[in-house]
Amino acid sequence: MKLLLLSLGLLSLTFFGVSCDSRTEVEQIVDAAIAAHGGERYGETSIDFDFRGMHYSIFKSPTAFEYSREFTDSTGQVVDVLNNAGFSRSVNGVLIDTLTEERIGAFSRSVNSVAYFAFLPYGLNDEAAIKTYLGQTTLKGKDYHLVKVTFKAAGGGEHFEDEFLYWFGVEDSLMDYMAYSYHTDGGGVRMREVREAREVGGIRFQDYINLKAVNKETPLDSMQYLYEKGVLDKLSEINLENILTSPTPKN
User: Fold this and answer.
1) Cα–Cα distance between 204 and 197 in angstroms, integer?
2) Which CATH class is domain 2-247?
């Protein structure tokens, strides 16, 4: 369980107040992107939204996090909570204490995944994240910094072999595209482009078109080329609905 907790949400988030002179080029690019999307507001705000029939409540700061989701299924009203202490599930107000480690892991990853993607680029300064600057590129006539993110085995979670690419606007620092390779459920490669964005409570929230390569063994670094060629298939849309933000109490 300790390994699971290390892999879920214990993020060392942004380095506000640290001199830019002490930051590498790629760290400064990511810092600017986080600032452009909400900056310090992330760690001071609780966020609620609906996603695919479930209601999520999310808070994370440099020292603590709590993600919860609520939904109704055949068992009743389900509430999942993932925080620094671990994972719990209750059904109709009754705590379920018979979950196997496998089920706890699956539910935890599911909750954490939604929170992770909803809050990008917040979290990319996690100590386990290895950021590599791949240089500038142009996509649909806009100039981008292309950044690759991999993870250390120690602290990077059980899926540390997953890889991510992020396109950050050179002029505006906005994250308009991302791509990633993953190994769960047979593995595959995905690319997301921003479909719509809006600001709520000073934080930028983005909806995406989720695209996939026909061949799941497609190299991650070929996704921009395939996207520009128009040969990626639309898999789904990632839409956050009914977004609400509220300030968290200060200690």
Assistant:
1) 7
2) mainly beta
